[in-house]
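Hi P.,

Sorry for the delay on this. The queue was packed all week, but I finally got your sequence through. Input first:
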Amino acid sequence: MSETTPPAPVVLDVWCDLQCPDCLRALTDVHALRARYGDRIDVRLRHFPLEKNKHAYAAAQAAEEAYAQGEHWPYIEALLARTADLSRAGESVLLDVARELGLDVEEFDTALIDGRHLLIVDADQAEGKAIGVTGTPTYVIGDERLDGGKNQEGLRERIEEITDRLLAARD
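Then the structure:
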């Protein structure tokens, strides 16, 4: 009897600004893709805080602290649901979301002050710029970049076509 290792999942990088309302709308597509492909797709959030969004850089750092505390996607989804609050009330919302999820708020506050996650955010942003990301959300799957900042119409279908093609090539 031979043991076979399942193929690695298809990687979908989602370049995101956590203060961006378009990124909130992109969550619907992310949920649908996860439901359709399960563990055959690995959706990875990549940080691309836009200069126009005053609290996006701190939000990206907060998301990394949530990752360190084991609640990455729940935090991202909860924060994206409050983009308007973040724009209006500022960085206190980052701590409010952490508190609502039962995370260590003092550690969140310390992480935002000491900048322990700056390098991760900066590296994502630099990589995004290097591959031509200019807005959010932007998706990268296989060798294709799909820009969703202006119009997300048809993007999920295009991602599904690419994913199906990549999965078929593995079989």
